[in-house]
Amino acid sequence: MTTDREQVLEGRELLQLYAAPTGPTQALRGVDVTVTGGRISAITGPSGSGKSTLLAVLALRERPAGGELRHRGRLVSSLTRHQLQRLRRREIGWVAQRPTHSLFPQLDARGQIEQMARLRGVRVDADAALAEVELTARATARPAVLSGGEQQRLAVAAAGVGAPALLIADEPTAELDDDSAALVLRLLRSRADQGTAVVLATHDARAVAAADTVLRLRQGVLSGEHDAGQIRTTTIDGLGRLQLPEEALPLFPDGRVIVTVVDGHVELHHPEDPK
Ligand SMILES: Nc1ncnc2c1ncn2[C@@H]1O[C@H](COP(=O)(O)OP(=O)(O)OP(=O)(O)O)[C@@H](O)[C@H]1O
């Protein structure tokens, strides 16, 4: 378990590249991110903007091609393979976009919870964990015979066993009806209340509404961070270029803007509405 409001991960200038037939794809292009215990952070952005890539890097499943990632102050790149494996097993819950990818195919629902507890070295009441996501009646069912919604609820419950330091979930509510989505979001909130840093990638307004912080990715760049519905930060690069939040773009449909520095702050106006 982690302490509430502890900085669990800090990423600076994170880069990720993938090989593609037309040359390398830059999936992350200099992302700064801080992940804090006790909070739910939602990463949003269009398809292909780098959400899953960022999650994989934060979950220590992929090494970034560049930049610096620290786990509780310690450089992740300095960890041995064994240390990384142990960290992932003990402290990081992972829910893949396809929930079956984060479940053991041969274990029933209760077995998933028990196995996760063994791996994490924690004791857990498996029946209570299943009840939390309304899977009591499915305790002896394996993932293959569960519905998509049941698989998702089970994957989130298993990932949250023992309130790990980090719980990372890729689109955990995407395929869920309102009742199942509410169960999943309630479980995520409950882990956050226990100190877990919860990070999700999502397109789902229900999940965004449940988050404490919303990070918006566009083309591998973090274009804004919103806290409880308010914009707090956006990125200014080394050349002084600023990326506006997507919702501001319709204000400047022709891409032209008048910039004035007034009394220590900056105002942006449409050229035909210079005020
Ligand atoms: N393993 C990979 N090999 C090659 N290219 C990849 C790989 N994974 C991701 N990419 C590319 O990197 C970019 C970011 O992909 P990513 O899956 O992180 O986006 P996303 O925001 O999660 O998208 P979606 O919402 O569709 O899941 C895309 O251009 C994608 O095609």
TrEMBL record:
Entry-linked InterPro entries: AAA+_ATPase (IPR003593), ABC_transporter-like_ATP-bd (IPR003439), ABC_transpr_LolD-like (IPR015854), P-loop_NTPase (IPR027417)
Q: Name one GO molecular function term.
A: ATP binding
Q: Which UniProt keywords apply?
A: ATP-binding, Nucleotide-binding
GO cellular component terms listed in the entry, alphabetical order: plasma membrane
What domain of life does the UniProt record list for this protein's source?
Bacteria
Q: Mind telling me which SUPFAM superfamilies this protein's record contains?
A: P-loop containing nucleoside triphosphate hydrolases
> In what residue span(s) does the ABC transporter domain sit?
12-244
PROSITE patterns, from UniProt? ABC_TRANSPORTER_2
Which family is it part of?
Belongs to the ABC transporter superfamily.
* Name listed for the protein in its UniProt record: ABC transporter
Q: Which organism is it from?
A: Actinoplanes friuliensis DSM 7358
